[in-house]
C-alpha cells in the first residue's frame, strides 16, 4: 500500500508537469516490477504447496525432460500416454492410447499420492503394467509431481 501510494504521488507530480530526475522514475519502475514478481512468486508457491507437497515444479520440468520425454509428451501419445491434465485424471483412461490390460483396468485417480507410488515402483502399484522406468529418489518424485500438477488440461 505504501508503495502504491508513492507511485501514485509520483504520477501526480508527472501529471502536474514537473519532471522528476530520471533515477527517480527508474526506481519507481523497478519497485513496481519487484512488487509484481514477488506477488507472482508467492502465488506459485502457495499453489505448489497446496497441491503437491514440497516439490519444486521448475526442477521437476528439467527432470521431466531428462527422464520422461523419451517416452512421454505433454499433448500427444507416444510410447506412453500424454501428460497434460494427468493430475485428477483416472488411471489408464486416455482415449485412443493402447494401455496394458492392467493399467486399463485400474480403478483410481492420479493424485500426488498415487503418482508418488507409481513413480517409485509402477509394478508394485499396478502389477502387469508396462512402463519400464521409475524414480527412486523421493525429492525427484516430489519435484516431478509438482511439475505435473501445473499441467492443467
Ligand atoms: C521407457 C518409456 C517410459 C519412460 C521413460 C517413462 N514412461 Fe511413463 N509410461 C510409459 C508407458 C508405456 C506407460 C503405459 C503403461 C501401461 O499401459 O501399463 C506409461 C504410463 C505412465 C503414467 C500413467 C498415465 C495414465 O494415463 O494412466 C504416468 C503417470 C507416467 N507414465 C509418468 C511417467 C513419468 C513422470 C516419467 C518420467 C519420470 C515416465 N512416465 C517415464 C512409458 C514410459
Structural class: mainly alpha
**Rg to the nearest angstrom?**
23 Å
- The CATH class designation of the largest domain is Mainly Alpha
CATH architecture of the largest domain: Orthogonal Bundle
Give helix % range: 55-70%
Q: Which cofactors or ions or other ligands sit in this model?
A: heme C
CA(first)-CA(last) distance: 36 Å
CATH names the topology of the largest domain as Cytochrome Bc1 Complex, Chain D, domain 2
Provide the succession of SSEs. Answer: HHHHHHH
Mean pLDDT rating: 79
Would you give an account of this structure?
The protein is mainly alpha-helical. The chain folds into 2 domains: 51 residues; 94 residues, Cytochrome c-like domain (Cytochrome Bc1 Complex, Chain D, domain 2). 56% of the residues lie in helices and 0% in strands. The chain has 7 helices and no strands. The longest helix has 31 residues. It is globular and about 35 Å long. The protein starts with a helix and ends with a helix. About 28% of the residues have low confidence. Bound molecules: heme C.
Keywords:
single chain, 7 helices, Cytochrome Bc1 Complex, Chain D, domain 2
List the helices and strands and how they pair.
Elements: H1 2-15, H2 22-52, H3 57-67, H4 101-104, H5 112-120, H6 122-125, H7 138-150
Bound molecules: heme C (HEC).
Question: Could you give a quick summary of the protein structure above?
Answer:
The chain is mostly helical and 153 residues long.
Amino acid at each position: 500500500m505504501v508503495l502504491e501510494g508513492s507511485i501514485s504521488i509520483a504520477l501526480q507530480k508527472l501529471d502536474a508537469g514537473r519532471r522528476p530526475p530520471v533515477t527517480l522514475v527508474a526506481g519507481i519502475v523497478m519497485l513496481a516490477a519487484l512488487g509484481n514478481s514477488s506477488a507472482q512468486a508467492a502465488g506459485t508457491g502457495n499453489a505448489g504447496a497446496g497441491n503437491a507437497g514440497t516439490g519444486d515444479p521448475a526442477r521437476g520440468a528439467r527432470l521431466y525432460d531428462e527422464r520422461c520425454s523419451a517416452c512421454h509428451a505433454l499433448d500427444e501419445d507416444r510410447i506412453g500416454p500424454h501428460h497434460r491434465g494427468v493430475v485428477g485424471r483416472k488411471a489408464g483412461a486416455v482415449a485412443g492410447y493402447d494401455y496394458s490390460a492392467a493399467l486399463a483396468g485400474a480403478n483410481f485417480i492420479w493424485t500426488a499420492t498415487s503418482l508418488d507410488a507409481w513413480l517409485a515402483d509402477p509394478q508394485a502399484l499396478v502389477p502387469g503394467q508396462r512402463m519400464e522406468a521409475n524414480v527412486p529418489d523421493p525429492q525427484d518424485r516430489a519435484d516431478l509431481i509438482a511439475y505435473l500438477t501445473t499441467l492443467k488440461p
